[in-house]
Amino acid sequence: MTLGIDQRSGIFVRAAIATLLVTLITSYAKADVSKVEIDAIRTKPLLTQEHFDKITAFVNEQFANMLTVKDSSKLTSIVRNLVGAAVGKNPRPEAKKTYSDCFSTAAKSRYKQIMQTARNHNDKNIGSNIKISTVVVLAHCDNTILIEDLAGLLQDDSEFIRYWAAKGLAGPRIQRYFTTNNADVSALLQTAVSALNTALQKENSSFVIAQIAQAAPLNQEGVKIIQGCVGRRVEQYQSWKVSNELNDWDIISKIFNMLNAPRLEDTEQIKDMAFNALKLFSVAYHRYTQSMQYKDNGDVLPLLPETNQRELETLLIRAEVELIRISKSDRRARFAVPIQKRKWKELNVHYQSLIRVVNNNFKIFPENQDKPPMPTVGPPPAEIIERAKTLNNIQSKS
After folding, report:
1. CA-CA distance, 388 to 398, in Å (whole number)?
2. Chain mean position to CA 385
3. How many angstroms from the chain centroid is the CA of residue 78?
4. Residues facing 300 on adjacent strands
């Protein structure tokens, strides 16, 4: 039997993948370094070359084990092993850093090969989950060695990979590093900022946008990223294409962190950050109140599913408390009761009062301005109304 060119190529490709897989697995399996050994090394005040070799072998072995799973659920224990070993446990900062650098270097040197092999996995679902699991590990390393890698992964097609890449850049050690003044930091900071801005321009996922906001450095570049995140979400609210509203708490809370950051000293930047918090709060408020008061033939027809209602209620109540706090006001939080009792006029009075409280502290717009330029949401589109009617009919029949 004579094989065609396509058939022979397919056999050769599959054989090459199989060979690579066997090579990865067998070469790493020889190390056979246990989690117990690694946990012991994590506590060492001083690491030797033998320790470095064992850490590297452990990382390689665990990554290779990902490629052998027949069921995606089996990836959980492997990820747990790697995430649990990513950071040193010795209280001395230099010892912890040495361990973390070694672990992250090992992960950096191997993850691309694992992800490439996973792309060619026979089971697309398992292959996709292997790639995501790999990035989850990188994100938990929270090491500056991986900044360029995480920045590159922000452009991936997978929403989950982009989410974890942004979450990795939001790690506390990386965030502290971004506030250090030296040339090396400046170069890596610009790499991260550029990648975050590029990703944001085409990002629609509320989960990823929220993590991009969390990854914004506490400086002028970070202010611009936050502006972009708020702008994207305001657009989605105004077009009624928003979802997962509680993710906006991550954006608003980041703004609050920036307002408390000593590096944010420019008066206009501080004013702008407070205004961005109000803008996002405002569109969330109007989405909630409009959807809860909409009437169809005289009867109230809530336009949003209960899940979205609860997320918006939680977001508004949390944000009110923090807006009062950053405004240094002694005003009590008042949103919870009218939300619970569905007293919309009372809630609107408290909303207008809160806008004035924030403005009194940050001087965002003239105090004598009757209607501050706060964004709202337009009338709900027909498909939103029809969907609400359909859901209401189903619930009425049941």
Report:
1. 15
2. 31
3. 22
4. 295
Report how far residue 273's alpha carbon sits from residue 279's, in angstroms, rounded to the nearest whole number: 10
Q: Which amino acid is at 343?
A: K
Please say whether the beta carbons of 10 and 20 come within 8 A.
Answer: no
| 278-325 residue pLDDT tens | 999 999 999 999 999 999 888 999 999 999 999 999 999 999 999 999
Task: Give the angle 234-295-316 at the CA atoms, nearest 5°.
Answer: 35
Are 137 and 166 in contact, with CB atoms under 8 Å apart? Answer: no
**If you average pLDDT over every residue of the chain, what do you get?**
90
Distance CA(315)–CA(249), nearest Å, equals 6
Question: In whole angstroms, what is the distance from residue 213 CA to residue 205 CA?
Answer: 12
Q: Which single residue is written with the structure tokens 């004035």?
A: 356
Contact status, residue 198 vs residue 166, Cβ threshold 8 Å: no
- 372 CB-contact burial (10 Å; exposed 0-12 / middle 13-18 / buried 19+): middle
Model confidence at 22: pLDDT above 80: no
Provide the token pair at 245.
Answer: 């509203």
Give me the residue label for tokens 């936050």. 226
Encoding tokens for residue 15? Answer: 């054989």
What is the rounded distance in angstroms from the CA atom of residue 103 to the CA atom of residue 42? 10
